[in-house]
Amino acid sequence: MGQVDVPDIPRTERLELNATTTAVIVVDMQNDFAHPDGALYGEEARAALPRIAELLARARARAVAVVYTQDWHAADDPEFALWGEHARADSWGAQVVDELAPTPGDVTVHKLRYDAFYGTPLDHLLRTAGVTDVVIVGTVANICVLHTAGSAALRGYRVIVAEDGIGALSAFDRAAALRQVTFLYGGSVTTTAGVRFVGGAPPPS
């Protein structure tokens, strides 16, 4: 096969989102994925930490809903045959990295597979909160980020992926994920700085 050309991926420089109907979903920013000692550590995931932290600070200042997903596996999970042991329930590796530790009022969802909606109450929690738009950050781009984004879109949510807030294992994987988000699921790609929350609680003076 010859070289694969990556189609143009549309990007939006700035998006204004209603704070009262938006949630930020932080996908799997756990020690096993975003800490150098983690079982499946990814450098890009760690590099995204300060940008995600800044986005979350702005979200919380406007009372935007913040949801963390955590990969959460039993000792005999069949997924270990594919990836090796990781994110074992209640282990250090399964905990959210200290730099992004949840705060009171944030929601945490333990997920069994790549898709954060599969076998979890995430859809119910978002709908109960009146959420229509989701901003997705985290890791890994073409695995848990993409499957969660796609599942959200298929449930009728507007999906926004902040591309500098996601970790990928390769440039190809990143491009493939963003292509699917925009082409297949009709989502938007922007940056963490390009996300602007309007309405909601006023920012602190």
Estimated radius of gyration: 16 Å
Integer count of domains = 1
Tell me about the largest β-sheet.
6 strands, parallel
The low-confidence runs, each spanning 5 or more residues with pLDDT under 50, are none
Helix/strand order: EEHHHEHEHEHEHEE
Oligomerization category of the chains in this entry: single chain
Write the CATH fold name. Answer: Rossmann fold
Describe it for me?
This protein has helices spanning 31-34, 43-47, 49-61, 80-83, 122-128, 141-154, 171-184, and strands spanning 15-18, 22-27, 65-71, 107-111, 133-139, 158-167, 188-190, 195-198. The strands form two sheets. It has a six-stranded parallel β-sheet, sandwiched between helices. Strands 1-8 form a two-stranded parallel ribbon. The mean pLDDT is 96. With 205 residues, it is α/β, with parallel strands linked by helices. The radius of gyration is 16 Å and the shape is globular. The longest helix is centred in the C-terminal third of the chain and has 14 residues, at 141-154. It starts with 14 loop residues before the first strand and ends in a 7-residue tail after the last strand.
Summarize the structure.
Helix content is 30%, strand content 22%.
Properties at a glance:
Rossmann fold; 205 residues; alpha/beta
Topology:
Elements: E1 15-18, E2 22-27, H1 31-34, H2 43-47, H3 49-61, E3 65-71, H4 80-83, E4 107-111, H5 122-128, E5 133-139, H6 141-154, E6 158-167, H7 171-184, E7 188-190, E8 195-198
Parallel strand pairs: 1-8, 2-3, 2-5, 3-4, 5-6, 6-7
Helix pairs in contact: 6-7
